[in-house]
Write a structure and sequence with these properties.
four-stranded mixed β-sheet
Length: 87
């Protein structure tokens, strides 16, 4: 990720504990390229994209795929790499 990131100007890389739901929500709409590599929980009624926990109100689960896509509508490239998990 860091090697690829160095190819672009004005890059923001969020890895490990920095890759929180709050950071995604705050930065995704301003990003032209988003590469998200994380866990995805598939459930009958909803799908959860998993982010790192933080100390704020966010629980680390992005539940609404429509809200997720709305945050990425200004992106010219969206790469999703999920490890499918379930419970």
């Amino acid at each position: 990720m860091q090697n690829v990131n160095s190819l672009f100007s004005n890059e923001l890389t969020l890895l490990s504990n920095d890759a929180t739901e709050q950071e995604f929500k705050e930065n995704a709409s301003q990003s032209s390229i988003i590469h998200l590599s994380t866990h995805l929980f598939l459930r009958k009624k909803s799908t959860l994209i998993i982010f790192s926990l933080n100390e704020n109100k966010e629980d680390g689960y992005l539940e609404d795929i429509k809200k997720f896509l709305a945050k990425t509508k200004n992106s010219v490239l969206l790469v999703l790499s999920f490890c499918r998990s379930g419970f």
